[in-house]
Amino acid sequence: MTRTPLRPLARILKARDQGQNPDAIEAENIRLRYEDDRDRARNRAEGRLLVMGLAFFCAFIVIGARMGMLAGSVPEEPATQVSSSPIIGQRSNIVDRNGRILAMNLDTHSLYAQISDMIDPGKVAHDLAVIFPELDEEVLLKDFTGERRFLWIRRQISPEQMQAVHDIGDPGLLFGPREMRLYPNGSVAAHILGGATYGREGVTAAEVIGVAGVEKYFDDFLRDPANNGAPLELSIDLTVQAASERVLQGGMMLMSAKGASSVLMDVHTGEIISMVSLPDFDPNDRPRILTEGDQSDSALFNRAIQGVYELGSVFKIFAVSQAIQIGLIEANTMIDTTGPLAWGRFRIRDFHDYGPQLTVEDVIVQSSNIGTARIAMMIGADRQREFLGSLGLLVETPVEMVEAPTGDPLLPSNWSEISTMTISYGHGLSSSPVHLATAYASLLNGGYRIEPTIMRQNGPRYGSRVVSEKVSTIARNMLRAVVVRGTASFGDVEGYEVGGKTGTADKPRSTGGYYDDRTIATFASVFPASDPQYVLIVTLDEPTVEVLGEKRRTSGWTAVPVAAEMIRRITPLLGMRPDVETLTPTGVTFNSN
């Protein structure tokens, strides 16, 4: 900054020449400099005051807006949250194909004790034993008066129980927030859902994890916060599932069976619309795993997927269809059924004597073991194994459940000619009802391989072709004939054109051989037979029904009528209208003319 001198030489000389006082010039310059400094200081001060005023104004605006927001909000109890907590409590819902809730979350509380804060341990132990009868008062008192400082009392409690604990009034009893898994439909679809339990637990959070079924298979998806709570949508229909369970339960009791299962599958998409295994359980109170005995006797055992059985004559349609596909026979080809059929020390016999010959169609309709075995001999072991493999019968089912790998089919160690003959009528190879449903759907949907799934699909999912459209139609016609005039006559449901095949297999002994009085009865059905939409497999374990003073164990007397009733009940729920012929008027008619 350039400063003006107080005594400029030019002005001083001029002033002397004019006779003026030079000191006046210096005084005037001092006055001007002072006034200039004063103006600059005033401007600086005014600027600072303006900035401070604006700052205070903005602060008051922000504070006023915040106070207005708080005044208009709903008051809440302050809570401490830890964003870095490793325990994830949330879990997505599971719904059926129509969005109905199958599994959901429910906010509840846990009960724990800070023993060091407890005032009267004796009274607390007594009162808790009254509220929770399953708790032992003496054990509680021992825990409260011992060296422990913290004790979980109940992982989850109801609102009524929470209020009762509040009324005890002891500061040592505390509550923690919990999210519990709730299955509002009870035991419906229990084996599909599986169940859930608590994993890692803290005072303010608990981890809910799947333990079986789709809950465990899709555990990562259900717990992933990135899904924003999107539900897991299954292929099953809740109403169809409930009706199937009710009918099958009644049929199992009526037939005095120890267990039962059913699988309803869409033949074009592979979707499992319902899957039932009895006895079942309530996933809200999941029972413990058996520690001894046969696990297949447990209610947790899923017979539809984990149960692998020799399913009997339901396999016969596979041998006949393959032989027609490769050109060895036609539907009207005559087959030698003279018995018994000898192979070394083995003898293959029919349930009845069907005479020396039957057509291929009648081999299926009458369920001739001898006729099917002779057809299998034409096919050969290698080709039979390849064909059954193309239907998915030789590998574990890909259904999205953790139990699926445990239902691996049991194959013969040596696929010999006698194995080929017995497998053709369902002995010597064990598979699950889901395997059978998949194979029937692939054979009868026009001949395309499908994969079973428990997830909802959008439209058909066809794989490679296993048989031609012509062979698929022939197979459907044969199965329809079995119901119309064969071993499954009790399976006819008016208006729905049911086709199917019966199968009755003796149960194997653990020590070798077979029981004479224990069977697995199976009915594999398709409807409508002329335009298949669904395959239904019904299996009863050790059924017995008394008819006219005689005990019956065959599928035609046990599994078939149960399946027929199930079809009769579920078809309206599936939106299927019966195809009933309109009667032509006969006799006298009214003429208005």
Protein described:
The chain is α+β, with helices and mostly antiparallel strands. The protein contains 17 helices and 18 strands. The chain is elongated, with a radius of gyration of 41 Å. The model is unreliable at 80-85 (pLDDT under 50).
Report a brief summary of the structure:
This protein is α+β, with helices and mostly antiparallel strands and 593 residues long. The chain has helices spanning 9-17, 22-72, 121-131, 137-144, 159-168, 190-193, 213-217, 219-223, 238-254, 316-325, 360-366, 369-379, 381-390, 417-424, 433-444, 469-485, 559-570, and strands at residues 94-95, 101-114, 150-157, 173-182, 195-201, 206-212, 232-233, 259-266, 272-278, 334-336, 341-343, 346-348, 357-359, 499-508, 514-527, 534-541, 545-547, 550-552. It is 35% helix and 19% strand.
Question: Which key phrases capture this entry?
Answer:
five-stranded mixed beta sheet; 35% helix; alpha+beta; Beta-lactamase; 19% strand; Penicillin-binding protein 2a (Domain 2)
